[in-house]
């Protein structure tokens, strides 16, 4: 059961009461909750046999399927990047990888009912457009042979594109392969910033692809931007936003850069003294909200924005928005099968993840079994909390009565501790309580991850229970 909620429109977002001090007090790094429990809670006691059993069980529910394909290769390494990637210019390396992907498809598809529709398909990376056009065709043919791809107009087949590695012929080829949605990496249009992150990308590359995508009739197009990159200022990022708004993409993702050079070696190439401070970064976020709201975009949640006529905004208004490993989705829940190095699956009541190292992924498949090397089977409490977090982050509200009826429990009693933790956020004006309903305020939408952490039984205590008055 999903509660239907009325969302505030762009004009309401424009009246957001901006409280810099409050935002800084709640400025703690937290999960994005594309899964719950998060990947940090996966364990090595979960292996290929556990995943095979989950695939077989999932046939009883008969949900449609979603396929995620991870293409780890990039020709150029962007300094800010935190993704699992292999930087190389040798496209021949992809041939062996495509062969392993096909082996993984065979092993996973044999456990699935062939009649289940592949409603969603997503190629991510790395850079999927690293593949040559004939390699893309080969991969689509293999996917179709193993799973049977959908020809429905309602399918959601998307691919991430690096505008430096694609042109109008690429888009025409992708359309012929069945893709109907695109996501373009931009990050920033300021040349100084581009040089500082090793991603020089002239505006004309992005504009030409957007124009061609519109002409070809792609259903939706997303642009990725990042706030907090080296040499960015509130004025320079406002100029990037103005140019992006003029391009009129259906969706925008405005991520916040997190500098962790101890974990991501490429970030060591970024000069820490060039990074904008917290106040400047928050000023950029403020400008983002004001400018996108004035341009008519709806703040879906976290770092996602969409035009009111886009399927994301429509789904949110109807209370049917969902979340998966790619973020927000307008489609009904699907069992997700992740294929490729580091890919994560969400099937039935389990999460299963492949090795992050290419060599380990290859060894598993060469040995004739699926590459799963860690995962988790969810308990009843995990599933209830996952549902609560998803509805809160999608609807910006949570109906505890509806949640209790769905799971056959008294939700207010079962979630007594999270509700107590949220009292601090309620006093700070981030959420309001009206009977059994929690409603996130406009300022609370900016901190929705922090609100979701209250329901996370596995979160570090200092994150789940932090009192902003003493932060």
Automatic annotation (TrEMBL):
A single MF term (Gene Ontology): 4 iron, 4 sulfur cluster binding
Domain Radical SAM core: 59-295
Pathway(s): Porphyrin-containing compound metabolism; protoporphyrin-IX biosynthesis; protoporphyrinogen-IX from coproporphyrinogen-III (AdoMet route): step 1/1
Cofactor note: Binds 1 [4Fe-4S] cluster. The cluster is coordinated with 3 cysteines and an exchangeable S-adenosyl-L-methionine.
Residues reported to bind S-adenosyl-L-methionine 2: 126-127, 187, 199, 224
One GO term describing the cellular component: cytoplasm
Leading EC class: oxidoreductase
SMART domains: Elp3
Cofactors that this protein relies on: [4Fe-4S] cluster
Reactions accelerated catalytically: coproporphyrinogen III + 2 S-adenosyl-L-methionine = protoporphyrinogen IX + 2 5'-deoxyadenosine + 2 L-methionine + 2 CO2
SUPFAM superfamilies assigned to the protein according to its UniProt record, in alphabetical order: Radical SAM enzymes
InterPro entries: Coprogen_oxidase_HemN (IPR004558), Coproporphyrinogen-III_oxidase (IPR034505), Elp3/MiaA/NifB-like_rSAM (IPR006638), HemN_C (IPR010723), rSAM (IPR007197), rSAM_horseshoe (IPR023404), rSAM_sf (IPR058240)
Primary location recorded for the protein, binned into one broad class: cytoplasm
UniProt keywords, alphabetically: 4Fe-4S, Cytoplasm, Iron, Iron-sulfur, Metal-binding, Oxidoreductase, Porphyrin biosynthesis, S-adenosyl-L-methionine
Cell compartment(s), UniProt: Cytoplasm
Binding site for S-adenosyl-L-methionine 1: 68, 125, 160, 344
Any single GO BP term: protoporphyrinogen IX biosynthetic process
EC number annotated for this UniProt entry: 1.3.98.3
Alphabetized NCBIfam families for the sequence: hemN
Role, per record: Involved in the heme biosynthesis. Catalyzes the anaerobic oxidative decarboxylation of propionate groups of rings A and B of coproporphyrinogen III to yield the vinyl groups in protoporphyrinogen IX.
Record note on quaternary structure: Monomer.
The protein's name: Coproporphyrinogen-III oxidase
Organism: Halomonas heilongjiangensis
Source lineage: Bacteria, Pseudomonadati, Pseudomonadota, Gammaproteobacteria, Oceanospirillales
Gene name of this polypeptide: hemN
């Amino acid at each position: 059961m999903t509660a239907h909620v009325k969302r505030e429109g762009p004009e309401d977002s424009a009246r957001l009461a901006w409280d810099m001090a409050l935002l800084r007090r709640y400025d703690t790094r937290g999960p994005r909750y594309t899964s719950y429990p998060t990947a940090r809670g996966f364990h090595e006691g979960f292996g290929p046999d556990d995943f095979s059993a989950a695939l077989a069980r999932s046939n009883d529910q008969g949900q449609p399927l979603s396929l995620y394909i991870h293409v780890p290769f990039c020709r150029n390494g962007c300094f800010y990047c935190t993704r699992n990637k292999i930087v190389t210019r040798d496209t021949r390396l992809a041939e062996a990888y495509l062969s392993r992907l096909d082996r993984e498809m065979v092993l996973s598809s044999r456990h699935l009912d062939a009649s289940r529709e592949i409603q969603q398909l997503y190629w991510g990376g790395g850079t999927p457009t690293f593949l040559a056009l004939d390699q893309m065709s080969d991969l689509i043919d293999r996917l179709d042979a193993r799973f049977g791809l959908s020809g429905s107009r309602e399918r959601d087949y998307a691919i991430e594109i690096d505008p430096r590695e694609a042109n109008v012929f690429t888009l025409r080829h992708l359309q012929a392969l069945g893709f109907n949605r695109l996501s373009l990496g931009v990050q920033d249009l300021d040349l100084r910033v581009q040089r500082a992150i090793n991603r020089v990308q002239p505006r004309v590359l992005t504009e030409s692809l957007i124009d061609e995508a519109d002409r070809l009739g792609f259903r939706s197009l997303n642009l990725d931007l990042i706030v907090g990159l080296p040499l960015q200022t509130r004025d320079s990022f406002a100029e990037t936003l103005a140019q992006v708004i003029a391009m009129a993409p259906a969706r925008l993702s405005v991520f916040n850069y997190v500098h962790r050079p101890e974990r991501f070696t490429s970030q060591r190439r970024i000069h820490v003294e060039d990074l904008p401070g917290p106040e400047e970064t928050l000023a950029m976020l403020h400008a983002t909200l004001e400018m996108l709201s004035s341009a008519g975009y709806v703040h879906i949640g976290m770092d996602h924005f969409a035009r009111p006529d886009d399927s994301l905004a429509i789904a949110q208004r109807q209370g049917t928005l969902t979340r998966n490993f790619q973020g927000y989705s307008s489609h009904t829940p699907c069992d997700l099968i992740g294929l490729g190095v580091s890919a994560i699956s969400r099937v039935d009541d389990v999460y299963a993840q492949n090795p992050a190292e290419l060599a380990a992924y290859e060894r598993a498949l060469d040995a004739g079994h699926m590459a799963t090397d860690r995962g988790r089977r969810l308990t009843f409490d995990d599933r209830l909390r996952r549902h609560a977090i998803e509805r809160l982050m999608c609807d910006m509200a949570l109906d505890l009565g509806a949640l209790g009826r769905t799971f056959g429990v008294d939700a207010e009693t079962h979630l007594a501790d999270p509700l107590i933790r949220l009292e601090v956020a309620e006093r700070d004006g981030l959420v309001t309580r009206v009977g059994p309903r929690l409603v996130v305020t406009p300022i609370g939408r900016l901190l929705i991850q922090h609100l979701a952490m209250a329901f996370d039984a596995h979160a570090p205590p200092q994150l789940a229970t932090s009192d902003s008055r003493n932060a």
